[in-house]
Amino acid sequence: MTTLPPRPPLCLRCWLAVALIAAAVVASFVYLGIDYGALGSAESLRLMGKFVAEFFPPDVSPEFLAKVGHGALQTLAVSALGTVLAAVAGAVLALPASGRIGGPLRHGARFVLNFLRSVPELVWAALMVLAAGIGPFAGALALSLHTTGVLGRLFAEALENAPREPEQALALSGAGPVAAFSYASLPIVLPQWVAYTLYRWEMNIRMAAVLGFVGGGGLGQLLYFHLSIFQQQQAMTVLIAMFVLVTFVDLASACLRKGLGPAYA
Questions:
Q1: Where are the bilayer-spanning segments (predicted)?
Q2: Distance CA 95, CA 182 (A)
Q3: How far apart are CA 95 and CA 186, in angstroms?
């Protein structure tokens, strides 16, 4: 009968890290001072049930459904345009960020990418609303700026991890740098780039629905309007439209990613 090797004891550093995390969690609850007794009281539960009941039944009148359908198409267009612009800009910045054009450009491109993705989409949307006005164009610009920082970093890392031997072999055979990159390195990383872009599109469709709260157009702006005037039934219809749209985009993106060839990672 074989005996299992003894389980190694947890190190002192691990116990200290767990204790610090537990202390931080407890301190957070104490600092917030949430009255859980009042939250779970019968009166609070009654008010929460009344609030939820006000969202039903959803407004399914033809006029309002047409308005929601227009908002859904606008949200889809904002997410698609923002993602496409970000994919193009990210690919351009990924070349210097991967170190293929020299050290100074690498640091400069990475600084730009870090700055773009460090600013949240809602902040970019607020700035773009001031610059371009309220509407879907501001939402598309906000998504493209933040997503450029994300995709540019991912594209650059894919280029760094890709083998350089095929490109070097073409260069030694007399091919120019553009041709060597286009016929050697680009086919290796392109499936991974497309997969990253589709995944970010899934995330952007959700964020595009939220950007309407700061004037980015689409379903979010429609939801904010009806919630602000306490039309919960209309707001419930918008929420259902958001769920249907996100589900459709998730399924479509998953099907497209399955059809991609294997990527080097």
A1: 12-34, 76-101, 122-145, 169-196, 208-229, 235-256
A2: 12
A3: 11
The tokens describing 4, both together, are 């299992």
Residue with tokens 């493209």: 144
Residue 265 reports pLDDT greater than 60:
no
DSSP 8-state assignment for residue 213: G
In sequence order, which residues have a C-beta less than 8 Å from that of residue 220 and are 6 or more positions away?
75, 208, 209, 210, 211, 212, 213
Structure tokens at 46: 């009654």
Written as one letter, the residue type at 156 is A
- Region for residue 174 given its phi and psi (left: phi exceeds 0; alpha: psi -120 to 50; beta: otherwise): left
Residue 242 has, within 13 A of its CA and on its CB side, a CA count of 22
Q: What pTM, to 2 d.p., does this model score?
A: 0.75
Asked whether the predicted pLDDT for residue 237 surpasses 90, the reply is yes
Over the stretch 77-110, which tens digit does the pLDDT of each residue have? 888 999 999 999 999 999 888 887 777 888 898 9
**Widest Cα–Cα separation across the chain:** 80
224: Cα within 13 Å, side-chain hemisphere: 13
